[in-house]
Amino acid sequence: MRVTTGRGISLFTLMLAACSAPTPIARPQRPFILEPLRPVVTQPITPVVPTSPPADTSNAARVRDATLASSKALDHITSLVDKVGPRMSGSEASPRAVAWAVAKMKELGFSNVHTEPVKESHWVRGIETGEVVSPSSHQIALTALGGTVGTSERGVSAEVVEVESLEALAALPDTAVKGKIVFFHVVMDKTRDGSGYGHSVGVRFAGPSAAAKKGAALALVRTVGTGDDRAPHTGAMKYADGVAKIPAAAVSVADAELIHRLLAEGPVKMHVVLTPRELAPVDGANVVGDIPGSGSSGEIVVLGAHLDSWDLGMGALDDGAGCGIVLEAGRQIAVFAAKPKRTVRVVLFANEEYGGAGAKAYAKAHESELAKHYAAIEADLGDGRVYEVTIRASAEASRALVDYGMLLFPLGAFVGDKDADGGSDVGPLRNAGVPILELRQDATRYFDVHHSANDVLEKVMKGDLDQATAAYAAIAYALADRDGELGRIPEPGRKGSH
Ligand SMILES: [Zn+2]
Protein backbone atom coordinates (compact mmCIF):
# COMPACT_ATOMS: atom_id res chain seq x y z
CA MET A 1 0.00 0.00 0.00
CA ARG A 2 1.23 3.41 -0.80
CA VAL A 3 1.39 6.05 1.89
CA THR A 4 2.56 9.52 1.10
CA THR A 5 4.47 11.68 3.51
CA GLY A 6 3.23 15.06 2.38
CA ARG A 7 6.28 17.19 1.76
CA GLY A 8 3.91 19.85 0.49
CA ILE A 9 5.83 21.26 -2.49
CA SER A 10 3.50 23.47 -4.45
CA LEU A 11 3.79 21.67 -7.73
CA PHE A 12 0.29 22.62 -8.76
CA THR A 13 1.72 26.08 -8.95
CA LEU A 14 4.62 24.97 -11.11
CA MET A 15 2.33 23.10 -13.41
CA LEU A 16 -0.01 26.01 -13.85
CA ALA A 17 2.89 28.31 -14.57
CA ALA A 18 4.04 25.97 -17.31
CA CYS A 19 0.54 25.48 -18.64
CA SER A 20 0.16 29.18 -19.20
CA ALA A 21 3.67 29.68 -20.58
CA PRO A 22 4.08 29.83 -24.38
CA THR A 23 5.52 26.61 -25.63
CA PRO A 24 8.31 26.75 -28.21
CA ILE A 25 7.68 23.17 -29.30
CA ALA A 26 5.16 21.99 -31.84
CA ARG A 27 2.98 19.55 -29.95
CA PRO A 28 0.63 16.97 -31.38
CA GLN A 29 -3.02 17.79 -31.58
CA ARG A 30 -4.77 17.42 -28.28
CA PRO A 31 -6.23 13.92 -28.06
CA PHE A 32 -9.72 13.34 -26.85
CA ILE A 33 -10.42 14.16 -23.24
CA LEU A 34 -11.77 11.32 -21.17
CA GLU A 35 -13.47 13.28 -18.44
CA PRO A 36 -14.57 16.86 -17.92
CA LEU A 37 -11.78 19.20 -16.92
CA ARG A 38 -11.94 20.16 -13.30
CA PRO A 39 -10.87 23.45 -11.81
CA VAL A 40 -7.46 22.96 -10.25
CA VAL A 41 -7.10 26.06 -8.14
CA THR A 42 -9.72 27.75 -6.02
CA GLN A 43 -7.53 30.21 -4.15
CA PRO A 44 -4.90 32.79 -5.09
CA ILE A 45 -1.48 31.37 -5.77
CA THR A 46 2.01 32.75 -5.98
CA PRO A 47 3.27 31.82 -9.42
CA VAL A 48 6.64 30.09 -9.55
CA VAL A 49 8.02 30.06 -13.07
CA PRO A 50 10.46 27.29 -13.93
CA THR A 51 13.85 28.56 -14.99
CA SER A 52 14.16 26.04 -17.81
CA PRO A 53 11.83 25.76 -20.80
CA PRO A 54 9.36 22.90 -20.82
CA ALA A 55 10.74 19.64 -22.12
CA ASP A 56 9.64 18.27 -25.46
CA THR A 57 7.22 15.54 -24.52
CA SER A 58 5.59 15.34 -27.94
CA ASN A 59 6.81 11.80 -28.57
CA ALA A 60 5.65 10.74 -25.13
CA ALA A 61 2.25 12.22 -25.99
CA ARG A 62 2.18 10.13 -29.14
CA VAL A 63 2.98 7.02 -27.10
CA ARG A 64 0.14 7.98 -24.74
CA ASP A 65 -2.34 8.31 -27.60
CA ALA A 66 -1.19 5.16 -29.34
CA THR A 67 -1.61 3.25 -26.09
CA LEU A 68 -5.12 4.59 -25.59
CA ALA A 69 -6.01 3.54 -29.10
CA SER A 70 -4.47 0.08 -29.15
CA SER A 71 -3.71 -1.15 -25.63
CA LYS A 72 -3.45 -4.91 -25.18
CA ALA A 73 -3.08 -4.73 -21.41
CA LEU A 74 -6.30 -6.69 -20.89
CA ASP A 75 -5.05 -9.40 -23.26
CA HIS A 76 -1.91 -9.80 -21.15
CA ILE A 77 -3.94 -10.09 -17.94
CA THR A 78 -6.30 -12.59 -19.57
CA SER A 79 -3.36 -14.68 -20.73
CA LEU A 80 -1.82 -14.68 -17.23
CA VAL A 81 -5.10 -15.57 -15.55
CA ASP A 82 -6.02 -18.31 -18.05
CA LYS A 83 -2.59 -19.88 -18.57
CA VAL A 84 -1.30 -19.66 -15.00
CA GLY A 85 -4.10 -18.67 -12.64
CA PRO A 86 -3.42 -17.78 -9.02
CA ARG A 87 0.34 -17.92 -8.41
CA MET A 88 1.19 -17.79 -4.80
CA SER A 89 4.78 -17.49 -3.72
CA GLY A 90 6.36 -20.91 -3.32
CA SER A 91 3.47 -22.73 -5.01
CA GLU A 92 3.70 -25.03 -8.03
CA ALA A 93 2.18 -22.19 -10.05
CA SER A 94 5.05 -19.82 -9.26
CA PRO A 95 7.56 -21.31 -11.75
CA ARG A 96 4.77 -21.54 -14.33
CA ALA A 97 4.16 -17.81 -13.87
CA VAL A 98 7.87 -17.14 -14.38
CA ALA A 99 7.90 -19.21 -17.58
CA TRP A 100 4.81 -17.34 -18.78
CA ALA A 101 6.42 -13.97 -18.11
CA VAL A 102 9.65 -14.89 -19.91
CA ALA A 103 7.72 -16.12 -22.95
CA LYS A 104 5.43 -13.06 -22.91
CA MET A 105 8.31 -10.58 -22.75
CA LYS A 106 10.03 -12.33 -25.67
CA GLU A 107 6.77 -12.37 -27.63
CA LEU A 108 6.39 -8.63 -27.03
CA GLY A 109 9.86 -7.96 -28.43
CA PHE A 110 11.71 -7.12 -25.21
CA SER A 111 15.50 -7.59 -25.09
CA ASN A 112 17.78 -9.08 -22.46
CA VAL A 113 14.86 -11.15 -21.13
CA HIS A 114 16.08 -13.17 -18.17
CA THR A 115 15.29 -14.36 -14.66
CA GLU A 116 17.07 -13.43 -11.45
CA PRO A 117 16.97 -15.78 -8.45
CA VAL A 118 14.71 -15.14 -5.45
CA LYS A 119 14.22 -17.36 -2.39
CA GLU A 120 10.45 -17.48 -2.02
CA SER A 121 8.66 -18.10 1.24
CA HIS A 122 6.19 -20.97 1.05
CA TRP A 123 3.11 -20.99 3.22
CA VAL A 124 0.10 -23.20 2.43
CA ARG A 125 -3.46 -22.60 3.54
CA GLY A 126 -5.01 -25.91 4.64
CA ILE A 127 -8.48 -26.31 6.09
CA GLU A 128 -10.28 -23.23 7.38
CA THR A 129 -13.71 -23.35 8.95
CA GLY A 130 -15.54 -21.18 11.43
CA GLU A 131 -18.92 -21.21 13.09
CA VAL A 132 -20.82 -19.38 15.75
CA VAL A 133 -22.02 -22.08 18.14
CA SER A 134 -23.98 -19.93 20.55
CA PRO A 135 -26.32 -18.13 21.11
CA SER A 136 -27.39 -19.46 17.67
CA SER A 137 -25.68 -21.48 14.97
CA HIS A 138 -24.06 -19.77 11.96
CA GLN A 139 -21.41 -20.86 9.47
CA ILE A 140 -18.84 -18.05 9.24
CA ALA A 141 -16.89 -17.30 6.06
CA LEU A 142 -13.28 -16.78 7.11
CA THR A 143 -9.80 -17.32 5.72
CA ALA A 144 -6.41 -17.75 7.36
CA LEU A 145 -4.09 -14.75 7.29
CA GLY A 146 -0.87 -15.32 5.38
CA GLY A 147 1.79 -16.63 7.71
CA THR A 148 -0.47 -17.68 10.53
CA VAL A 149 0.09 -20.84 12.53
CA GLY A 150 -2.76 -23.32 12.71
CA THR A 151 -5.05 -24.50 15.44
CA SER A 152 -5.03 -28.12 16.54
CA GLU A 153 -7.14 -30.40 14.35
CA ARG A 154 -9.93 -30.08 16.90
CA GLY A 155 -9.78 -26.31 16.55
CA VAL A 156 -10.38 -23.56 19.08
CA SER A 157 -13.71 -23.14 20.87
CA ALA A 158 -13.98 -19.98 22.92
CA GLU A 159 -15.96 -16.91 23.76
CA VAL A 160 -15.48 -13.89 21.49
CA VAL A 161 -14.27 -10.50 22.71
CA GLU A 162 -14.73 -7.62 20.25
CA VAL A 163 -12.39 -4.63 20.10
CA GLU A 164 -12.37 -1.76 17.63
CA SER A 165 -8.63 -1.03 17.64
CA LEU A 166 -5.26 -2.07 19.02
CA GLU A 167 -5.63 0.71 21.61
CA ALA A 168 -9.00 -0.63 22.74
CA LEU A 169 -7.44 -4.06 23.19
CA ALA A 170 -4.56 -2.61 25.19
CA ALA A 171 -7.06 -0.93 27.52
CA LEU A 172 -8.69 -4.25 28.44
CA PRO A 173 -7.46 -6.18 31.47
CA ASP A 174 -5.71 -9.44 30.56
CA THR A 175 -8.41 -11.35 32.41
CA ALA A 176 -10.99 -10.14 29.88
CA VAL A 177 -8.99 -11.63 27.00
CA LYS A 178 -7.22 -14.72 28.36
CA GLY A 179 -8.26 -17.91 26.56
CA LYS A 180 -10.72 -16.06 24.33
CA ILE A 181 -11.05 -15.24 20.64
CA VAL A 182 -10.24 -11.58 20.07
CA PHE A 183 -12.31 -10.14 17.23
CA PHE A 184 -10.94 -6.91 15.74
CA HIS A 185 -13.90 -5.11 14.23
CA VAL A 186 -12.31 -2.28 12.26
CA VAL A 187 -14.34 -0.87 9.38
CA MET A 188 -12.29 0.11 6.34
CA ASP A 189 -13.31 3.33 4.59
CA LYS A 190 -13.74 3.33 0.83
CA THR A 191 -11.55 6.10 -0.61
CA ARG A 192 -10.18 7.04 -4.00
CA ASP A 193 -6.61 7.13 -2.76
CA GLY A 194 -6.84 3.82 -0.92
CA SER A 195 -5.90 5.47 2.37
CA GLY A 196 -8.58 3.45 4.18
CA TYR A 197 -6.36 0.40 3.70
CA GLY A 198 -3.42 2.08 5.38
CA HIS A 199 -5.62 2.97 8.33
CA SER A 200 -6.96 -0.58 8.77
CA VAL A 201 -4.20 -2.94 7.75
CA GLY A 202 -2.14 -2.37 10.90
CA VAL A 203 -4.63 -4.42 12.88
CA ARG A 204 -4.36 -7.33 10.45
CA PHE A 205 -0.58 -7.14 10.60
CA ALA A 206 -0.01 -6.67 14.32
CA GLY A 207 -3.34 -7.63 15.91
CA PRO A 208 -2.64 -11.35 16.42
CA SER A 209 0.50 -10.74 18.50
CA ALA A 210 -1.20 -7.93 20.42
CA ALA A 211 -3.97 -10.36 21.34
CA ALA A 212 -1.48 -13.11 22.17
CA LYS A 213 0.33 -10.81 24.60
CA LYS A 214 -2.85 -10.70 26.63
CA GLY A 215 -3.29 -14.47 26.50
CA ALA A 216 -5.87 -14.77 23.71
CA ALA A 217 -6.35 -18.19 22.09
CA LEU A 218 -7.04 -16.94 18.56
CA ALA A 219 -7.44 -13.66 16.65
CA LEU A 220 -10.07 -12.78 14.08
CA VAL A 221 -10.02 -9.57 12.06
CA ARG A 222 -12.83 -8.09 10.05
CA THR A 223 -11.69 -8.36 6.43
CA VAL A 224 -9.51 -5.41 5.48
CA GLY A 225 -11.56 -4.56 2.43
CA THR A 226 -14.55 -2.56 1.29
CA GLY A 227 -16.79 -5.23 -0.22
CA ASP A 228 -20.05 -6.13 1.51
CA ASP A 229 -20.19 -9.82 0.69
CA ARG A 230 -19.14 -13.14 2.16
CA ALA A 231 -15.72 -13.30 0.53
CA PRO A 232 -13.03 -12.86 3.19
CA HIS A 233 -9.80 -11.11 2.17
CA THR A 234 -6.53 -12.69 3.18
CA GLY A 235 -3.22 -10.80 3.53
CA ALA A 236 0.06 -10.99 5.36
CA MET A 237 0.47 -10.78 9.11
CA LYS A 238 3.61 -10.76 11.24
CA TYR A 239 4.29 -12.22 14.65
CA ALA A 240 6.17 -10.07 17.13
CA ASP A 241 9.39 -11.53 18.52
CA GLY A 242 9.14 -13.19 21.89
CA VAL A 243 5.35 -13.50 21.85
CA ALA A 244 3.38 -16.75 21.62
CA LYS A 245 2.09 -17.37 18.09
CA ILE A 246 -1.68 -17.72 17.97
CA PRO A 247 -3.79 -18.57 14.89
CA ALA A 248 -5.35 -15.68 12.99
CA ALA A 249 -8.00 -15.37 10.31
CA ALA A 250 -10.00 -12.73 8.45
CA VAL A 251 -13.79 -12.82 8.60
CA SER A 252 -15.88 -11.65 5.62
CA VAL A 253 -17.54 -8.26 5.99
CA ALA A 254 -21.04 -9.79 6.06
CA ASP A 255 -20.05 -12.31 8.75
CA ALA A 256 -18.15 -9.71 10.74
CA GLU A 257 -21.31 -7.60 10.84
CA LEU A 258 -23.28 -10.66 11.99
CA ILE A 259 -20.85 -11.38 14.83
CA HIS A 260 -20.91 -7.69 15.76
CA ARG A 261 -24.73 -7.70 15.96
CA LEU A 262 -24.81 -10.88 18.01
CA LEU A 263 -22.24 -9.50 20.44
CA ALA A 264 -24.39 -6.42 20.94
CA GLU A 265 -27.08 -8.78 22.31
CA GLY A 266 -24.87 -10.88 24.56
CA PRO A 267 -22.04 -13.42 24.76
CA VAL A 268 -21.01 -15.23 21.57
CA LYS A 269 -19.06 -18.47 21.36
CA MET A 270 -17.25 -19.63 18.21
CA HIS A 271 -15.43 -22.69 16.96
CA VAL A 272 -12.57 -22.18 14.45
CA VAL A 273 -10.31 -24.69 12.69
CA LEU A 274 -7.24 -23.57 10.73
CA THR A 275 -4.56 -25.96 9.44
CA PRO A 276 -2.04 -23.87 7.44
CA ARG A 277 1.65 -24.77 7.31
CA GLU A 278 4.87 -22.87 6.73
CA LEU A 279 7.11 -24.93 4.45
CA ALA A 280 10.74 -24.51 3.47
CA PRO A 281 11.49 -21.61 1.09
CA VAL A 282 11.80 -22.54 -2.57
CA ASP A 283 13.78 -21.20 -5.52
CA GLY A 284 11.82 -18.59 -7.47
CA ALA A 285 12.69 -15.68 -9.73
CA ASN A 286 12.11 -12.10 -10.75
CA VAL A 287 11.60 -11.70 -14.49
CA VAL A 288 13.37 -8.83 -16.25
CA GLY A 289 13.13 -7.53 -19.82
CA ASP A 290 14.51 -4.38 -21.45
CA ILE A 291 13.41 -2.01 -24.17
CA PRO A 292 16.85 -0.64 -25.04
CA GLY A 293 17.27 3.11 -25.38
CA SER A 294 19.09 4.88 -28.20
CA GLY A 295 21.66 6.57 -25.96
CA SER A 296 24.91 5.33 -24.47
CA SER A 297 24.47 6.45 -20.86
CA GLY A 298 23.47 2.97 -19.69
CA GLU A 299 20.71 4.55 -17.63
CA ILE A 300 17.52 2.66 -16.86
CA VAL A 301 13.93 3.56 -16.07
CA VAL A 302 12.31 0.71 -14.13
CA LEU A 303 8.64 -0.17 -14.58
CA GLY A 304 7.68 -2.75 -11.96
CA ALA A 305 4.73 -4.90 -10.92
CA HIS A 306 4.51 -8.16 -9.01
CA LEU A 307 3.96 -11.52 -10.61
CA ASP A 308 2.86 -13.44 -7.51
CA SER A 309 -0.66 -13.27 -6.10
CA TRP A 310 -2.70 -14.65 -3.26
CA ASP A 311 -4.43 -17.97 -3.77
CA LEU A 312 -8.13 -17.21 -3.21
CA GLY A 313 -8.96 -15.45 -6.48
CA MET A 314 -7.25 -15.27 -9.87
CA GLY A 315 -4.94 -12.36 -9.11
CA ALA A 316 -6.49 -10.49 -12.03
CA LEU A 317 -6.35 -7.11 -10.29
CA ASP A 318 -3.63 -7.81 -7.73
CA ASP A 319 -1.38 -7.69 -9.50
CA GLY A 320 -2.37 -9.06 -12.87
CA ALA A 321 -3.48 -5.54 -13.74
CA GLY A 322 -0.07 -4.12 -12.82
CA CYS A 323 1.65 -6.81 -14.91
CA GLY A 324 -0.64 -5.99 -17.83
CA ILE A 325 0.02 -2.26 -17.47
CA VAL A 326 3.83 -2.46 -17.39
CA LEU A 327 4.07 -5.15 -20.08
CA GLU A 328 1.85 -3.13 -22.40
CA ALA A 329 3.62 0.13 -21.59
CA GLY A 330 6.88 -1.61 -22.51
CA ARG A 331 5.37 -2.98 -25.72
CA GLN A 332 4.05 0.40 -26.79
CA ILE A 333 7.47 1.98 -26.26
CA ALA A 334 9.14 -0.92 -28.08
CA VAL A 335 6.96 -0.53 -31.18
CA PHE A 336 7.09 3.29 -31.23
CA ALA A 337 9.08 4.69 -34.13
CA ALA A 338 11.56 6.72 -32.05
CA LYS A 339 13.51 5.08 -29.25
CA PRO A 340 13.87 7.10 -26.05
CA LYS A 341 17.43 7.79 -24.93
CA ARG A 342 17.41 5.53 -21.90
CA THR A 343 16.46 1.88 -21.51
CA VAL A 344 13.02 1.11 -20.11
CA ARG A 345 13.21 -2.02 -17.97
CA VAL A 346 10.12 -4.03 -17.06
CA VAL A 347 10.56 -6.04 -13.85
CA LEU A 348 7.95 -8.55 -12.69
CA PHE A 349 8.80 -9.15 -9.04
CA ALA A 350 8.41 -12.40 -7.12
CA ASN A 351 7.10 -12.79 -3.56
CA GLU A 352 5.53 -9.36 -3.02
CA GLU A 353 2.51 -10.57 -1.12
CA TYR A 354 4.25 -12.62 1.49
CA GLY A 355 7.85 -11.70 2.16
CA GLY A 356 9.02 -9.03 -0.30
CA ALA A 357 12.07 -11.11 -1.22
CA GLY A 358 11.81 -10.21 -4.92
CA ALA A 359 12.17 -6.49 -4.26
CA LYS A 360 15.17 -7.03 -1.99
CA ALA A 361 16.78 -9.47 -4.45
CA TYR A 362 16.54 -7.01 -7.36
CA ALA A 363 18.05 -4.13 -5.37
CA LYS A 364 20.84 -6.43 -4.13
CA ALA A 365 21.62 -7.93 -7.54
CA HIS A 366 21.84 -4.44 -9.09
CA GLU A 367 23.50 -2.71 -6.16
CA SER A 368 26.57 -1.70 -8.16
CA GLU A 369 24.49 -0.10 -10.92
CA LEU A 370 21.80 1.64 -8.89
CA ALA A 371 23.42 4.95 -9.82
CA LYS A 372 22.38 4.14 -13.38
CA HIS A 373 18.78 3.66 -12.31
CA TYR A 374 17.36 6.97 -13.47
CA ALA A 375 13.91 6.47 -11.92
CA ALA A 376 11.49 3.72 -10.91
CA ILE A 377 7.70 3.37 -11.10
CA GLU A 378 5.51 0.58 -9.75
CA ALA A 379 1.99 -0.49 -10.77
CA ASP A 380 0.25 -2.28 -7.90
CA LEU A 381 -3.16 -0.75 -7.38
CA GLY A 382 -5.31 -2.58 -9.88
CA ASP A 383 -6.93 -1.19 -12.99
CA GLY A 384 -8.05 2.21 -11.65
CA ARG A 385 -7.67 5.37 -13.68
CA VAL A 386 -4.59 7.47 -12.98
CA TYR A 387 -5.66 10.76 -11.44
CA GLU A 388 -2.39 12.17 -10.16
CA VAL A 389 1.35 11.98 -10.67
CA THR A 390 3.80 12.57 -7.85
CA ILE A 391 7.56 12.37 -7.58
CA ARG A 392 10.34 11.95 -5.05
CA ALA A 393 13.72 13.02 -6.40
CA SER A 394 16.15 15.88 -5.90
CA ALA A 395 14.31 19.14 -5.22
CA GLU A 396 15.36 20.64 -8.55
CA ALA A 397 14.24 17.57 -10.45
CA SER A 398 10.77 17.76 -8.98
CA ARG A 399 10.05 20.39 -11.59
CA ALA A 400 10.03 17.57 -14.14
CA LEU A 401 6.47 17.18 -12.98
CA VAL A 402 5.58 20.41 -14.72
CA ASP A 403 6.07 18.71 -18.05
CA TYR A 404 4.50 15.47 -16.93
CA GLY A 405 1.43 17.18 -15.60
CA MET A 406 0.87 18.59 -19.05
CA LEU A 407 1.42 15.16 -20.54
CA LEU A 408 -1.27 13.59 -18.36
CA PHE A 409 -3.69 16.52 -18.50
CA PRO A 410 -5.60 15.09 -21.50
CA LEU A 411 -6.12 11.88 -19.51
CA GLY A 412 -7.82 13.83 -16.73
CA ALA A 413 -4.84 13.49 -14.38
CA PHE A 414 -3.02 16.21 -12.51
CA VAL A 415 0.17 16.89 -10.59
CA GLY A 416 0.02 16.01 -6.91
CA ASP A 417 1.79 17.89 -4.17
CA LYS A 418 2.88 14.97 -1.99
CA ASP A 419 6.03 12.89 -2.05
CA ALA A 420 5.82 9.72 -4.08
CA ASP A 421 6.09 6.59 -1.95
CA GLY A 422 6.35 4.11 -4.76
CA GLY A 423 5.08 0.83 -3.36
CA SER A 424 6.76 -2.19 -1.86
CA ASP A 425 8.66 -3.49 -4.89
CA VAL A 426 10.47 -0.23 -5.61
CA GLY A 427 10.85 0.51 -1.89
CA PRO A 428 14.44 -0.81 -1.70
CA LEU A 429 15.37 1.33 -4.73
CA ARG A 430 13.82 4.41 -3.12
CA ASN A 431 15.67 3.64 0.10
CA ALA A 432 18.90 3.66 -1.93
CA GLY A 433 18.05 7.09 -3.38
CA VAL A 434 16.66 6.11 -6.79
CA PRO A 435 14.07 8.75 -7.80
CA ILE A 436 10.49 7.48 -7.64
CA LEU A 437 7.46 8.54 -9.61
CA GLU A 438 4.02 7.45 -8.58
CA LEU A 439 0.99 7.32 -10.83
CA ARG A 440 -1.79 7.35 -8.30
CA GLN A 441 -4.72 5.24 -9.44
CA ASP A 442 -8.34 5.44 -8.39
CA ALA A 443 -8.62 2.70 -5.76
CA THR A 444 -12.34 3.09 -5.06
CA ARG A 445 -13.21 -0.37 -6.45
CA TYR A 446 -9.91 -2.10 -5.81
CA PHE A 447 -10.33 -2.96 -2.14
CA ASP A 448 -13.75 -4.49 -2.76
CA VAL A 449 -11.98 -7.52 -4.21
CA HIS A 450 -8.24 -7.53 -3.59
CA HIS A 451 -6.85 -10.60 -1.76
CA SER A 452 -10.25 -12.29 -2.05
CA ALA A 453 -11.98 -14.89 -4.22
CA ASN A 454 -13.58 -11.99 -6.08
CA ASP A 455 -10.27 -10.90 -7.62
CA VAL A 456 -11.29 -12.27 -11.02
CA LEU A 457 -10.93 -11.14 -14.61
CA GLU A 458 -14.51 -9.88 -14.80
CA LYS A 459 -13.64 -7.16 -12.29
CA VAL A 460 -11.12 -5.57 -14.66
CA MET A 461 -12.54 -2.51 -16.46
CA LYS A 462 -10.88 -2.15 -19.84
CA GLY A 463 -11.51 1.59 -20.22
CA ASP A 464 -9.96 2.42 -16.87
CA LEU A 465 -7.11 -0.02 -17.44
CA ASP A 466 -6.28 1.49 -20.83
CA GLN A 467 -6.26 5.01 -19.41
CA ALA A 468 -3.86 3.90 -16.68
CA THR A 469 -1.67 2.05 -19.15
CA ALA A 470 -1.49 5.12 -21.38
CA ALA A 471 -0.35 7.19 -18.40
CA TYR A 472 2.36 4.69 -17.43
CA ALA A 473 3.58 4.36 -21.02
CA ALA A 474 3.72 8.13 -21.52
CA ILE A 475 5.54 8.85 -18.27
CA ALA A 476 8.00 5.99 -18.74
CA TYR A 477 8.80 7.22 -22.23
CA ALA A 478 9.12 10.84 -21.11
CA LEU A 479 11.47 9.89 -18.28
CA ALA A 480 13.57 7.69 -20.54
CA ASP A 481 13.86 10.48 -23.09
CA ARG A 482 14.34 13.37 -20.68
CA ASP A 483 17.28 15.77 -20.91
CA GLY A 484 19.14 16.25 -17.66
CA GLU A 485 19.31 14.31 -14.45
CA LEU A 486 16.76 13.63 -11.73
CA GLY A 487 19.56 13.33 -9.19
CA ARG A 488 19.10 11.14 -6.12
CA ILE A 489 16.54 11.40 -3.34
CA PRO A 490 18.40 13.32 -0.64
CA GLU A 491 19.13 11.78 2.76
CA PRO A 492 17.08 12.11 4.89
CA GLY A 493 13.92 11.73 2.87
CA ARG A 494 14.32 8.28 1.40
CA LYS A 495 12.24 6.44 3.95
CA GLY A 496 8.74 5.43 2.96
CA SER A 497 6.06 2.97 3.96
CA HIS A 498 8.10 -0.02 2.70
ZN1 LIG B 1 -0.30 -6.19 -5.01
Architecture overview:
- The termini are close together.
- Helix 1 packs across helix 10, helix 3 (73-83) crosses helix 8 (316-335) and helix 8 crosses helix 13.
- Helix content is 31%, strand content 22%.
- It contains 13 helices and 16 strands.
- It is elongated and about 70 Å long.
- The strands form three sheets. It has an eight-stranded mixed β-sheet, with helices on both faces. A five-stranded mixed β-sheet has the order 1-10-12-11-13, with helices on both faces.
- The chain is an alpha/beta fold and 498 residues long.
Output the radius of gyration. 24 Å
Give the overall silhouette. Answer: elongated
Number of helices: 13
Major β-sheet, in short? Answer: 8 strands, mixed
Mean pLDDT across every amino acid position: 90
Q: What percent of residues are in strands?
A: 15-25%
Bound molecules: zinc ion
Strand segment tally: 16
- Through-space gap between termini: 9 Å
User: Which residues sit in consecutive blocks of at least 5 with pLDDT less than 50?
Assistant: 1-50
Secondary-structure map with pairings?
Elements: H1 11-20, H2 58-70, H3 73-83, H4 93-107, E1 111-124, E2 128-134, E3 138-140, E4 142-144, E5 156-163, H5 166-171, E6 181-184, H6 195-213, E7 218-222, E8 248-251, H7 253-265, E9 269-274, E10 277-291, E11 300-306, H8 316-335, E12 343-349, H9 357-365, E13 373-378, E14 386-392, H10 400-408, E15 414-419, H11 427-431, E16 436-441, H12 446-449, H13 462-480
Parallel strand pairs: 5-6, 6-7, 7-8, 11-12, 11-13, 14-15
Antiparallel strand pairs: 1-10, 2-3, 2-9, 4-8, 5-9, 10-12, 14-16
Zinc ion binds next to helix 8.
